[in-house]
Amino acid sequence: MIDGGLNPQMFPSLSLTEYSYDFTIGDSLNKEIEINPHGTIVGRIILNELLVPVKLLDLKVFDKEGKGDMFNSLCAVSNAIKNNADIINMSWGMYVPIYDSLFLKYMEATRVKNILVVASAGNENLNTNSCLHFPSGFNSAAFTTLGNVLGVASLAKSSDNLAAYSNYGTSTIGIAS
């Protein structure tokens, strides 16, 4: 899970320190740090909704305000590949006019290792067919050679419709949750 870190108090039964790394400070999560709550929320959803035992590799790339950079994100992807992750969750993204070729190389490395990359479609109510949002944009027709990136849109809480804020796109989004 590449995100804003997991609050260890919310996961008392997990040994997070063995599977955690904070790329924002370059040291293990054993230090006193401030966690962005988004990672903890996503981690709880993963553990509560999956019906199989899960080991979470907690790779923190965002600070408490949710700010991060591409370098730390690519370091985290590399770490997930090195640790033989089966799935990389990236519940975040960015808009770039032209995708970053280094980012593509890392996504190609996940494909070679048969790692599924689950990525947020974004939260700005935009059509991502015409305004690519990455990493979910690697699910678009332009990157069919990858085939391992799943763009995820958001459903409204009370219906099967997309949430009003959710990005949408027939060629970039594979599922809504």
Structural class: alpha/beta
Distance between the termini: 17 Å
Please identify the oligomeric state.
single chain
Low-confidence stretches: none
How many extended strands?
9
Helix content: 10-25%
- Largest sheet: number of strands, sense, barrel closure: 4 strands, parallel
Fraction in beta strands: 15-25%
Shape: globular
Q: Output the radius of gyration.
A: 16 Å
Task: Average the pLDDT over all residues and give the rounded result.
Answer: 87
- H/E element order: EEHEHEEHEEEE
* Spatial order of strands in the largest sheet: 4-6-8-9
Question: Count of DSSP helices?
Answer: 3
Please give the structural blueprint.
Elements: E1 2-3, E2 20-22, H1 37-49, E3 58-60, H2 70-82, E4 87-90, E5 94-95, H3 101-112, E6 116-120, E7 133-134, E8 149-153, E9 175-176
Parallel strand pairs: 1-3, 2-3, 4-6, 6-8, 8-9
Antiparallel strand pairs: 5-7
Helix pairs in contact: 2-3
Summarize the structure.
Helix content is 21%, strand content 16%. With 177 residues, the protein is α/β, with parallel strands linked by helices.
